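User: Sequence in, structure out. Go.
Assistant: Echoing your sequence, followed by the structure tokens.
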Amino acid sequence: MKYVQQVYELDCRYFRCINQYFDHKRLNAFLRYATHLGGAGLMISIVLALLVFTKGAMQFTALASAASLTVSHIPVAVVKKVYPRKRPYLVVQNSQVTDNPLVDCSFPSGHTTAIFSVIIPFMLWNPLTAFLLLPVGIIVAISRVYLGLHYPTDILVGSLLGSFAGISSFLIIKHNFLFLFL
């Protein structure tokens, strides 16, 4: 129990380190926009557009991303029910939060899970895309803490869940269905 308390205190400390910059006008505007890149609606729209309007390896990768996005949100939904952690702006004193903040549970971060579940298959397909996609994923993750909606461990677990789903989906689809896209 002492270890859990130490991790929580460290989590709160890192949360405050990131959330303290909330009043920076330009950073605030940028991260309020960037956070939506991990939203389910946008992720689903991008993946569906790639599935419909591309062919070959790109379409195969979009299929892996779609599978990853779908599968990754099962553990997110389960963990949020089993471990209903309150969002940090509700618990951490002097935290700052966006207008109309989310009120459901914070652990793990669904936005972070979504962005990583979609970008990982593309980074596996073409490692050069990591130079663009990995910073996008990291920015989305950090924006969730910056905006007062998640603890750092929420985004860490979300990035791990999304990455695991992305790697697994890519490898399973590549091993079993690649011949359909050649």
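User: And one key feature?
Assistant: DSSP finds eight helices and no strands in the chain.
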